[in-house]
Write a structure and sequence with these properties.
This protein is an alpha/beta fold. The chain has helices at 3-9, 18-25, 54-70, 87-95, 108-119, 136-139, 154-162, 178-190, 193-202, 205-215, and strands at residues 13-14, 30-34, 77-82, 100-103, 126-130, 144-148, 168-170, 220-223. α3 (54-70) packs parallel to α8 (178-190).
Length: 226
């Protein structure tokens, strides 16, 4: 079975052709994530905090390493956009050495513009992972769009597909490790899954070079007060 066939058997829907996916992937220089509903199930505490899973964290790290290998040792920019002031997201971004965390952005395109300007990127060079309505204006601009499909969002998934705002739709939401599934899918489609796993498992010199570059990143935290 091909990679597409295997993931399709799990319920993944491919909105674009294999050729178009390869075209969109060819220029990627950054990964950008919504937080609530992507790294978690969307439930929050009274202060607006919502945690993350180490399963998904590993997936994101492998994804960044895969793109680093794919782009011949150029570290992809990594960012998170969330509408809340979230200490869990801040702790994650700092621990995982993301380039940027944009909190309190109810109008998420404002955060996208800042992320692009800070790193000299074009929107088509960004892969975006998202799950809900507030993310649509960002998804409609980014180069590769991965929608995490919660069980209760069938109509939203249809609308997103009709608007041309998703390229791949994962059948699992954030509370069921849809982000990890999405990361493993992209790595496999890019053709270096075995290489990525082998380097990480052996903690090879190649992986250590990537890790040193990643760890040198200081997360820029941008807070937008309402």
């Amino acid at each position: 079975m091909t990679v597409r066939e295997r993931f399709s058997a799990h319920g993944t829907r491919f909105v674009i052709s294999e050729r178009e996916f390869d075209r969109r992937s060819s220029s990627l220089k950054a990964v950008l994530f919504d937080w609530d509903g992507v790294f978690n199930d969307g439930f929050k505490d009274a202060e607006g905090g919502s945690p993350f899973s180490e399963v998904d964290s590993m997936g994101v790290n492998l994804l960044r390493f895969s793109l680093w290998l794919k782009n011949e040792g150029r570290l992809p920019k990594a960012g998170i956009i969330t509408g809340q002031q979230n200490p869990f997201a801040e702790g994650f971004a700092q621990r995982e050495c993301f380039h940027g965390l944009y909190m309190g952005f109810a109008n998420k395109p404002e955060a996208l513009e800042q992320f692009l300007a800070t790193h000299g990127l074009r929107a088509e060079e960004v892969a975006f992972f998202f799950d809900d309505v507030l993310d649509l204006p960002v998804a409609e601009r980014c180069g590769l769009r991965v929608l995490l499909g919660h069980r209760a969002t069938h109509q939203f998934q249809r609308t997103t597909e009709a608007r041309g705002a998703a390229d791949v739709i994962i059948p699992f939401g954030g509370g069921h490790h849809g982000l990890r599934e999405a990361c493993e899918l992209l790595i496999s489609l890019w053709g270096n899954w075995e290489e990525v796993v082998d380097h990480r498992a052996r903690f090879s010199e190649t992986y250590q070079r990537y890790l040193a570059e990643r760890q040198a990143v200081q997360a820029l935290v941008v807070r937008k007060e309402r």
